[in-house]
Design brief:
Layout lengths: L1 H9 L13 H30 L4 H29 L12 H15 L8 H21 L2 H4 L5 H10 L2 H19 L1 H16 L6 H9 L15
Helix pairs in contact: 1-2, 1-3, 1-4, 2-3, 2-4, 8-9
Membrane topology: Multi-pass membrane protein
GO molecular function, one term: iron-nicotianamine transmembrane transporter activity
GO biological process, one term: response to iron ion
Length: 231
């Protein structure tokens, strides 16, 4: 992950013909730093959860993470520059095209250009979903417990928008399995659900099977949304 973020920062963007005097480079550097920090924090929380389930000392987990992070901060830059000097990284016609660099560059350009570069009605959709999340959270917190439990969680609804629609399929099928398992054998389900869920979530999840079938049949699910450019 750290090498990927350094790739975004140090790839020779002069090949893409844009002005470095604007905020694009600053946005790319900031994005790389934030994503690296968030990635490390996410891994740490996962490790703490694993340590809790395996009765591991939290102090040893945190110390191990700190030692590994320090080593990574020293070793990873040297490894990246060795890789960067030895190969033509970032060349669109070369072996190492660095596609994420182009994606994040375009995102940075959109950020520099401001709201005018966004698709039509994009801000209105953002305002609407933001208002919905606030109202849903307030409704869930202020309503009686027997009513609030039926109010959807905006955080759970936002996850598929972030990671992709496949996550919805995995979580829906997993929730049905957990519900049925608790009905059949609640005690065994309480013990085994975390282990089974971990096995199903690892890798591409359950969605990879229907995705492969749709790909073989050359069928595209009609779930795309397009915006017309503002005149």
């Amino acid at each position: 992950m750290f090498l990927a973020q350094l790739q975004l920062t140090f790839v020779d963007f002069s090949r893409f013909n844009f002005n470095k005097n604007n905020g694009v480079v600053a946005g790319l550097v900031g994005c790389g730093l934030i994503k690296s920090i968030v990635s490390i924090s996410s891994d740490l929380m996962h490790d703490f959860k694993t340590g809790h389930l395996t009765l591991t000392s939290p102090r040893s987990m945190l110390l191990s993470q700190a030692i590994g992070t320090v080593i990574g901060c020293v070793v990873a830059p040297f490894m990246f520059f060795l890789f960067y000097k030895a190969f033509d990284v970032g060349n669109p016609d070369g072996e190492y095209k660095a596609p994420y660099a182009i994606i994040y560059r375009n995102m940075a350009i959109l950020g520099v250009e401001g709201f005018s570069a966004l698709p039509r009605h994009c801000l209105q959709l953002c305002y609407g979903f933001f208002s919905f999340s606030i109202s849903a959270n307030l409704s869930r917190d202020l309503s009686p417990k027997n009513i609030g439990k039926y109010v959807p969680l905006p955080m759970a609804m936002a996850v598929p928008f972030l990671v992709g629609a496949y996550f919805t399929i995995d979580m829906c099928l997993g929730s049905l399995v957990v519900f049925a398992w608790h009905k059949l054998n609640s005690r065994k389900a309480s013990l085994m659900v975390p282990a089974v869920a971990s096995g199903l979530i690892c890798g591409d999840g359950l969605w990879i099977l229907p995705l492969s079938i749709l790909a073989l049949a050359k069928i595209r699910p009609p779930i795309c949304i397009s915006f017309q450019a503002t005149n």
